[in-house]
Design a protein that fits this description.
It is built from 2 helices and 3 strands. It is an alpha+beta fold. Strand 1 and strand 2 form a beta hairpin.
Length: 69
């Protein structure tokens, strides 16, 4: 099975608190990251958009991945 089929990513934004929660799981391991910092929210949004672009690409090598700051 391919790697992207085994891993799930969930983003939740709570406007009332101004918090963003990112949860990544493969049923064996669950990673959760929460933040209220605007800078972190922007980085997670950028990461998530790159991840989605890679997951829908027909050929993974054709998608350019930006370097981490």
């Amino acid at each position: 099975m391919c790697f992207s089929c085994q891993v799930r990513v969930v983003l939740k934004y709570r406007h009332a608190d101004g918090t963003l929660c990112m949860k990544v799981t493969d049923d064996a391991v669950c990673l959760v990251y929460r933040t209220e910092q605007a800078q972190d929210v922007k980085k997670i949004e950028k990461f998530h958009s790159q991840l989605m672009r890679l997951m829908v690409a027909k050929e993974p090598r054709t998608v350019a991945v930006a370097e981490a700051d």
